[in-house]
Design goal:
alpha/beta, Nucleotidyltransferase, domain 5, 5-stranded mixed sheet, globular, disordered C terminus
């Protein structure tokens, strides 16, 4: 099975192509170039170097949230376009779960964290099961970073751009040994592809027409349209 994975949920973006468990190609871009400029060339490079054509893909997988409103829309739009052309299924993957998969078989809990702007982070806590797979405990939340330490275990690993953004806050609470190495703060499209295949096996894919970003908090534009109704939503991801 050929699976194309894509992530555009943060400042870094990546594209990967897998055949079964084998990574045929993966490109990660974290240079400050916008996703609208970088992701399609990255996908073209993966296809070119692997010798695979887009119409050969069996499954498309993409992160749908939480994350950057603009970034999520770009990734979802690209995958919808590719999947519409091939009539193949699409897997909507949780951004935080894809990040947590950097810590397969971790003996310590992992707090996956993205920068939500406006002084908040998107966060979820994961524990690895006996087979090594990270499994979320509790809800995905948008929360002020100062509030998190009181809810996290002392031996937690802090991972993601949210952890890096508020490093000073978490250093006081946990110390430097709790931070993941910088390269593990980045979401890998290869993990997105693997998680997408798991969703396919569970019968939890969607049609391209039904694919949409999953937001925890309403966008700034929506806040402006509903000036006095700014209630944040707390949701469960996949």
């Amino acid at each position: 099975m050929l699976v194309l994975g894509m992530d555009t949920s943060t400042r870094a973006g990546s594209v990967a192509l897998l055949r079964g468990d084998k990574v045929l190609g993966e490109v990660l871009v974290h240079s400050g170039i916008t996703h609208s400029e970088s992701i399609l060339p990255a996908a073209s490079r993966v296809f070119e170097q692997s010798g695979i054509e887009p119409d050969e893909i069996d499954l498309f997988a993409v992160t749908v949230g939480p994350g950057s409103f603009t970034g999520l829309r770009i990734g979802v739009s690209i995958i919808k376009g590719l999947a519409f052309g091939s009539s193949r299924p699409v897997a909507a993957v949780s951004t935080l779960e894809a990040l947590a998969w950097n810590f397969f078989f971790s003996a310590r809990p992992v707090c996956a964290m993205l920068d939500a702007k406006k002084g908040q982070v998107y966060s979820a806590l994961y524990y690895c099961t006996e087979d090594g797979r990270p499994r979320r405990e509790g809800e995905v939340v948008a929360v002020e970073p100062e509030r998190l330490p009181g809810y996290l275990p002392a031996d937690v690993i802090l991972a993601g751009e949210g952890a890096a953004r508020y490093e000073n806050v978490f250093l006081k609470a946990f110390g430097p040994e709790s931070f993941a190495p910088p390269h593990l703060h980045l979401i890998r499209a290869s993990a997105v592809a693997v998680l997408g295949r798991r969703l396919l096996e569970a019968g939890e894919t969607v049609k391209a027409a039904d694919l949409a970003p999953v937001y925890i908090r309403v966008s700034e534009a929506e806040q402006k349209r509903a000036a006095n109704d700014q209630t944040a939503c707390f949701i469960k991801d996949h």
